């Protein structure tokens, strides 16, 4: 288990962090996924997927579960006793930085072809699996996988290009 974590822990956390955008929730998702690996190792079928693919699928599912849980939690009204004392603990600088990052990703998403953007938004913001997307969008699963891979690659390029423009702002 330690070797598995040493090998895939950072990538798992990175995936969870991208989905959840919250370091503590990302840590929770990774921990839950590795506990799932520990408990469900007998269910791993090497003919179906590599260890990395299986593990990243578990991490992604846990992260999506946490997104859904947090969304439900946020939409439920707080008892009046807690409403005035609520604080998210984030500094103004952190909030501004998250907003800039979010805008950068949204700008990059807007530059993607419509089908790639739709597929990525439904997968990451809507929480749909690739097979659910294939059914929902009426496209073959291979097309969905290709659109996601191409879209993520292009999105990464666009965000990195945008981050290069922001470097001068970071030094201020």
Could you outline the blueprint of secondary structure elements for this entry?
Blueprint: H1 2-20, H2 23-40, H3 51-75, H4 80-83, H5 92-110, H6 114-124, H7 130-137, H8 141-170
Helix pairs in contact: 1-2, 1-3, 2-3, 5-8, 6-8, 7-8
What proportion of the residues form beta strands (DSSP E)?
A: under 5%
Summarize the helix and strand pattern as letters: HHHHHHHH
The major pleated sheet works out as: none
- The helix/strand class is mainly alpha
Any descriptors?
single chain, 172 residues, mainly alpha, 8 helices, globular
Description of the molecule:
Helix content is 78%, strand content 0%. The N and C termini lie far apart (44 Å). It is built from eight helices and no strands. With 172 residues, the protein is mainly α. Helix 5 crosses helix 8. It is globular.
What is shown here, in short?
With about 170 residues, the protein is mainly α. It has helices at about 1-20, 25-40, 50-75, 80-85, 90-110, 115-125, 130-135, 140-170.
């Amino acid at each position: 288990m330690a070797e598995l974590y040493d090998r895939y822990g950072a990538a798992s956390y990175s995936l969870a962090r991208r989905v959840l955008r919250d370091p503590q929730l990302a840590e929770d998702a990774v921990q839950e996924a590795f506990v799932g690996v520990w408990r469900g190792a007998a269910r791993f079928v090497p003919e179906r997927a590599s260890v990395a693919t299986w593990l990243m699928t578990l991490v992604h599912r846990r992260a999506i579960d946490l997104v859904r849980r947090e969304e439900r939690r946020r939409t439920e009204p707080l008892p009046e006793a807690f409403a005035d004392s609520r604080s998210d603990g984030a500094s103004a600088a952190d909030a501004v930085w998250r907003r800039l990052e979010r805008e950068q990703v949204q700008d990059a998403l807007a530059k993607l072809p419509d089908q790639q953007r739709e597929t990525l938004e439904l997968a990451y913001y809507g929480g749909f699996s690739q097979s659910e997307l294939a059914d929902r969008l009426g496209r073959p699963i291979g097309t969905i996988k290709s659109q996601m891979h191409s879209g993520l690659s292009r999105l990464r390029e666009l965000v990195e290009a945008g981050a290069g423009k922001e470097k001068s702002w970071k030094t201020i």
